[in-house]
Amino acid sequence: MKYALSAVALALLTACGQPSDTSKTQETLMTETQAAHPFTYPVTAKGDVVDSYFDKKVADPYRWLEDDRSEQTGNWVKEQNKVTFAYLDQIGYRDQIKQRLEALWNYEKVGAPFIEGDYTYFFKNDGLQNQSVLYRKKGDAEAEVFLDPNTFSSDATTSLADVSFSEDGKTLAYSISEGGSDWRKIIIIDVETKKPIEETLVDVKFSGVSWKGNEGFYYSSYDKPEGSELSAKTDQHKLYYHQLGTAQKDDPVVFGGVDAEKHRYVGGVVTDDGKYLIVSAANATSGNKVFLKDLTKADSAFVTLYAEGNADFEFVDSRGDALYFVTNLNAPNKKLIKVDATAPDADKWTDVIPETANVLDVSKGAGFLFANYMVDAISQIKQYDYDGKLVRDVSLPGLGTVSGFGGKTKDTTLYYSFTNYNTAPSTFAFEPKSGETSTYYKAAVKFNSDDYESKQVFYTSKDGTKVPMIITHKKGIQLDGNNPTMLYGYGGFNVSLTPAFSVANLVWMEMGGVYAVPNLRGGGEYGKAWHDAGIQLKKQNVFDDFIAAGEYLIAQKYTSSNKLAIRGGSNGGLLVGAVMTQRPDLMKVAIPQVGVLDMLRYHTFTAGAGWAYDYGTSEQNKEMFDYLKGYSPVHNVKEGVAYPATLVTTGDHDDRVVPAHSFKFAAELQAKATGPNPQMIRIETNAGHGAGVPVSKQIELAADIFGFTLFNMGVKELPKQ
């Protein structure tokens, strides 16, 4: 079926590479490829920018779309959205999907309680509230609203990003994100009056808040960049100390203020007893240096605990001068070590929980340590004391993902959540002394989990590597190759995809869909070796793993190429972009979301240079440049190829993976793709990389993605429930 959609042409570029004010008719500007298309897209003006890399010149005709502040880019965004939403509006069952999402999403969600000062706090969402609300109660009194982020802005796009209480619980520093930006503001209030006690801290980015007693706190940020704060490069992170009652301009730089301390990511945390400040400093998303400062001594100097920066160290807890870290130094699957702060030499470190065959994470609470092992992406929990003696294996509700078991030493009850692909998150209370578990909160989603099943399979990738994948769907589906299937992946940055419930995925499966998630190389499911097998000159392994997952689903008759969709976000957006340009025949639909799609220039925006451990950069050497150009989605869209139906999604305020990645990729697809499939981009306004997105916008996006996907798979109407 063909559709003619109206659009407005954008201006041409002048010789200087900027859009001119000269406009022409749509017919004049339309390329031959577009004329052969069943769609009429806004014409994206081409510039004459050419970059030189080693012995090659690379054209970048859409460089002007990197200017997120220009009127021309703003007009382009508006015209693209007109075309996209006109297309989506013709999908008759899109509203039906949205209504079903709203109905299932509308259940109460309650978070685990935590105690600060005289109050017990917890987050709750009544069902369809755009942002969850922070409540509190004192003793047996009725709970009251403490902070309601739904009141922060008229459109609910300002979200609560973090809360941190002073030691006595009487003061709160909370951070907010406006429009999904990574730039934050910190607001400091008196918990009794709920009123601010001083001026708001501004221009804070990639930061936690760690209190030094009740006096003040440490936080991190960059100098405000010149040019666009959404896309300008930021590469020197600094740790500041804010003393209550003083102006932010007077906050001293504690670490990162000199060239010798220059790092892209710096963070500080104070031990619970207030004795030490632990500083982590890194130039990439993998590996960090560790420094220690004794806060009990005035003007004490930093002591270096680990200077190489080629391994990961995560601070867990302290007991006096004993500091506990999880590290993958000489332990690819991680171990817990103890460091004596008074004698921190590496030869004196001791193992508390040694490395095993499974990847380790550690939390602490109630005077115990909890080892969360990942066994083929499934959680197993073991309880230890601080000498590394096993207390017990913790019995869990089933096979899935567990998080929690964290708290203060004085806590007597800890909480954890459990979920998997067909089990909504529930919260359990755990008694560390006895090992008893009881249900604290059970999610009341209006569906029967027994109607669905999840199965883990292991398939073979191109080079013979066995890769796990969990496939979830309604019980009783026919393996006839005709099931709409969503293949979701990530494969990077040591991130592990473990089973987790999603209302949106439930609706997809209700409609007869299959949801499949492979654990690709580049992720962290099998430790550092698995991560390193999918980075830099081995990145193609990740794409091969994803392609092999799609081929497995087709071979096993779950689906066919005409009923397969691939989806991923951020690094997963790169995954989708690379796979759809390498194997456009494999799938019918591609959904690259907030993707890293221009691999030659990603490192020139915001903190993108910190991703070089995973990607390498085009400036590194000729071999790396050639490799990146060989798979960079923006640079591998070819003239005249029938690409799958594509819905690129991004936010115009994304300052982590700047929207220019998505803008350029969509422009290339629209200019070069042939065949009957639409090449659309959906640009959420006043939205960022994904954090703090209002529920209403999450529902709208899911309805649009599912409607677009099913429509392009030829689905005429939804199955009756």
From TrEMBL:
Keywords: Hydrolase, Protease, Serine protease, Signal. PROSITE patterns: PRO_ENDOPEP_SER (PS00708), PROKAR_LIPOPROTEIN (PS51257). SUPFAM superfamilies: alpha/beta-Hydrolases, Peptidase/esterase 'gauge' domain. It catalyses: Hydrolysis of Pro-|-Xaa >> Ala-|-Xaa in oligopeptides. Its EC number is 3.4.21.26. GO terms for molecular function: oligopeptidase activity; serine-type endopeptidase activity. Residues 42-440 form the Peptidase S9A N-terminal domain. One of its GO terms (biological process) is proteolysis. One of its GO terms (cellular component) is cytosol. It holds the Pfam family Peptidase_S9_N. The keyword NADP does not apply. Residues 500-710 form the Peptidase S9 prolyl oligopeptidase catalytic domain. Gene3D superfamilies: alpha/beta hydrolase, Prolyl oligopeptidase, N-terminal domain. Residues 1-17 form the signal peptide. InterPro entries: AB_hydrolase_fold (IPR029058), Pept_S9_AS (IPR002471), Pept_S9A_N (IPR023302), Peptidase_S9_cat (IPR001375), Peptidase_S9A (IPR002470), Prolyl_oligopep/macrocyclase (IPR051167). Belongs to the peptidase S9A family. This is prolyl oligopeptidase. It comes from Rheinheimera tangshanensis.
